[in-house]
Amino acid sequence: MSMMSMTNPPVKVLTPSRTSGAELIVSLLEYRHLLTLLIWRDINVRYKQAVIGVLWVILQPVLMAFIFAFVFSRLIQVSSDGVPYLLFAYSGATLWGLFAQGVDKSSLSIISDEHLITQVYFPRWILPLAAIGSVFLDFCATMLVLMIIVLIYGLNLGWHLLLIVPAVAFVVVVTIAAGVASAFLCAKFRDFRFLLSFLLQLGQFLTPVFYTLSLFPKKYLWLAYLNPLAGPMELFRFGLTGISHFSLWGLGLSLLMDGLLALAAFKILYELEDDLIDNL
């Protein structure tokens, strides 16, 4: 047998091309109808057999706000920068709920729809995005209640209400970044789910949800704004009430951390998307 015949034939390895940022936008536009269907599916499944339905969305932050209002304003007497503490707590719980519930529900979206992923092709990140979309609709319902509370307290509704829009937009971006990254990490490392649950609990206390940043000494205030949600949270409260411990440099520092988080999420998506089927 000749040496030529014993030589192994050349092997050509085909690997899928990596997803670029432009391709993500094109895919979002192309699969926008699928995204809408998945959002409504999540909402229907969530409230299909719920006795009071969407009222659970409103009751959860309301009850949390009442509990913390009693503990922090009555027992500990924590400052709320001149804002009625119930409104202060409810506004924080509302915005934090958008982030925490969005990340929590999106983290399991890929695992829950494993059967769908293995049968039909579509961008896998559509699933965590749909989970966040359904949570955002819940957030809109809680915002209506929040505005009613603002009117009851008779706070001035001025130009600052416009600042609510960018504040919510910043939180949505952070939620999408953290949610998509968590979904792919949970698909590859199933025990990441337990770490994520702990991180969300810890994040609630590290974020000015039920306390004001005026409690921090000025020389350590920059540490608080390293939290990607701290700046948007203060901007949200300022837009809602016109009263807040808000600063442009603090918002800028939080937005810088938001950008780093988004880059890290894109890196995770870039590395894990192609091997997703093998990890399921």
Reconstruct the topology from this structure:
Blueprint: H1 3-6, H2 21-30, H3 32-47, H4 55-75, H5 85-107, H6 109-112, H7 114-117, H8 126-153, H9 164-188, H10 192-206, H11 221-224, H12 230-241, H13 248-272, H14 276-279
Helix pairs in contact: 3-8, 4-5, 5-8, 5-9, 5-10, 5-12, 8-9, 9-12, 9-13, 12-13
Describe this structure in words.
By secondary structure, the chain is an all-alpha fold. It has one domain. The chain has 14 helices and no strands. It is globular and about 55 Å long. The N and C termini lie far apart (45 Å).
- Derived structural class: mainly alpha
Provide mean pLDDT, rounded: 82
| Count of distinct structural domains | 1
Rounded to the nearest angstrom, the radius of gyration is 22 Å
What's the order of the H and E elements? Answer: HHHHHHHHHHHHHH
The total of helices stands at 14
Q: Could you tell me the number of beta strands?
A: 0
Strand content: under 5%
Low-confidence stretches: 1-5
Tell me, what's the shape?
A: globular
Largest sheet: none
Helix content: 55-70%
Distance between the termini: 45 Å
